[in-house]
Fold this sequence. Notes:
Elements: E1 12-15, H1 21-34, E2 42-47, E3 50-56, H2 58-61, H3 73-98, E4 106-112, E5 117-122, E6 127-133, H4 139-156, E7 184-187, H5 193-205, E8 213-218, E9 221-227, H6 243-255, H7 257-260, H8 262-272, E10 278-283, E11 287-294, E12 297-303, H9 309-325
Helix pairs in contact: 1-4, 3-8, 5-9
Amino acid sequence: MTNEMLSxxxxxxxxxxxxxxxxxxxxxxLCLRELDPEIxxxxxxxxxxxxxxxxxxxxxxxxxxxxxxxxxxxxxxxxLESFGRQINRAVxxxxxxxEPLDTGVLIRVVFDAGIGGLIYNRVNTRQYLIGAALRPExxxxxxxxxSKLATRCRSxxxxxxxxxxxxxxxxxGPPGGSHITPPLVELSSDADPEDIxxxxxxxxxxxxxxxHYAARCKDNDVxxxxxxxxxxxxxxxxxxxxxxxxxxxxxxxCRDLSTLTANFARAARAALGTPLRTSVVDVEAGALYVHxxxxxxxxxxxxxxxxxxxxxxxxxxxxxxxFLDSR
Length: 327
């Protein structure tokens, strides 16, 4: 993003007193370079929940006002920075929940509210980035920009990339033919017609290539689960934690989704002014996809393959759309 494109007004730039300007100059340059009034309006840098750097082009973006945002740019900026502070503890808590799966720590979380979204990217064990895309059409591009920014910041620290969002995967798509493995379908004893419909759609959605698990949960109960964990092609993903244990852990997560996502949802709603719709929880090996239908109902998707995180996300979103459109 060039200075001309940012208009005559310079981007907002805050540096906390504890930040040594000389040491963080390269980080600041990288963050400023990603700002875009149409795509990524805010980027901030935190150390263990403490704000260190904050940049935005909120004044240049000409964003539509909402009732919460009526106080202006200053209030919006404070809400975004507050989200960044609060997310630290929520990430730590979710890491503890996911630890038994042995899929690694959270490296990226995308919060989609339908009107835009927020993005968390891990830099190292103590530092992380927060990005805000406040136009719905810009969220996908902002997500990629933030993933690349996190990778560049890790490079400054001599750390390798973690392929957040699968951005460094090949672009040829998953291998064909492995989808012939029959999925396992488990329905609750009191399954209703919507559960049956989700199971039917799920049979066609899950496959060893990308989306490995899908579930419908309502009122803290798991109504239906569809997965392909038994596929021979996925055997290497269960070397340390077995298939049955994975299923048990994901069912526990599904039952607790309303509690597990509460801190995320509360902080994100305060920053965005509207409830979350979908969250992508990207760990070192794979990702979880959560869609909040409302009224205590959640849809959950899982991929175990970091190389296929983006493919699985698209497949999960298609499953969600088909299921909700069929109502």
